[in-house]
Amino acid sequence: MEEPFANQYTRRDILKYSGVAALTLAVGGIFVGCAKQSTQTETASANRDNAATTASLAGSSLNIYCGAGMTDPFQEIADAFKAETGCEMNITFANAAQIQTQITTTQEGDYFIAGSADELKPVADYVETSTDLVKHIPVIAVPTANPKGITALGDLANCDTLLIGDPDSTPIGKIAKKALTDAGIWDTLQGKNAITTTTTAPQIATALASGEGDAGIVWKENVKADGASILETSDMDAYVKTVPAARLTSVANKDAADAFDAFLQTSTANDIWQKYGYELAGK
């Protein structure tokens, strides 16, 4: 603010109209001083607000269930929320069936971050609200050398070992069974005992990278280890799901939950999801 105000006067003008200029500069100084004081006041106020927010959640905690396939991004989001608010974040990472059982048995917990909205149906009576966060994208992955020459969903019939999630307990397993059934090759693969199941999605990509399978159906973000690659095909586009944040009826600290609801919509949370390869819901 000081420079534009000062640049309205040349040195000659100041000498010629020194009295007026001195008065003007003095008044300007007052305005600048006031502006600086105002800025300092606003900064101090913002600091107080931030301190108040942090202080208000210090000693609070949230208990959250999250699908194991989202461990890395969600742990980072939880850590960022804790750093901003002081709220302790107790997270249980497990497959959907284990989480559903825990919710119905204990009737405790604040949130369920599920691999797809379908996983909320068995615990619908315990869900207070649900907000879509990001898209959950299934892909076909193969070892980098692709020994079976897999190029499309139908080619998976040629696998001697096809890795998928457990169709009874994981959303990625249910999607794999649906896609293979729709392609007309589920019974073929079952008949030759070619399907190997895992209890969590990340195990599929890890096994592929270790040469323990010919191909697998897995979430896109889980394929990050050297030795495994995502097949370039649109065959799985019809099976894309959405990750919801379900706030449970058993939520114990509504202030902390309200703050976390808001945090999940911030650019900080969105940037973390996107860093791990997720696409924001609604885009």
Give a verbal description of the structure.
The protein contains 10 helices and 11 strands. The protein has helices at residues 2-6, 11-16, 18-57, 71-85, 96-106, 171-182, 186-191, 202-209, 254-263, 267-275, and strands at 61-67, 88-94, 111-113, 127-136, 138-143, 162-165, 195-198, 215-219, 228-230, 241-248, 279-280. The chain has 2 domains: 61-136 and 241-280, D-Maltodextrin-Binding Protein, domain 2 (3-Layer(aba) Sandwich); 138-239, 3-Layer(aba) Sandwich (D-Maltodextrin-Binding Protein, domain 2), CATH 3.40.190. By secondary structure, it is an alpha/beta fold. The longest helix has 40 residues, at 18-57. A 6-stranded mixed beta sheet has the order 2-1-3-10-4-11. It has a 5-stranded mixed beta sheet with strand order 7-6-8-5-9.
Care to give the gist of this entry?
Helices cover 43% and strands 21% of the residues.
List the helices and strands and how they pair.
Layout: H1 2-6, H2 11-16, H3 18-57, E1 61-67, H4 71-85, E2 88-94, H5 96-106, E3 111-113, E4 127-136, E5 138-143, E6 162-165, H6 171-182, H7 186-191, E7 195-198, H8 202-209, E8 215-219, E9 228-230, E10 241-248, H9 254-263, H10 267-275, E11 279-280
Parallel strand pairs: 1-2, 1-3, 6-7, 6-8
Antiparallel strand pairs: 3-10, 4-10, 4-11, 5-8, 5-9
Strand content: 15-25%
CATH topology of the largest domain: D-Maltodextrin-Binding Protein, domain 2
CATH C-level name of the largest domain:
Alpha Beta
Number of strands: 11
Read across the widest sheet, the strand sequence of neighbours is 2-1-3-10-4-11
Tell me which CATH architecture of the largest domain applies here.
Answer: 3-Layer(aba) Sandwich
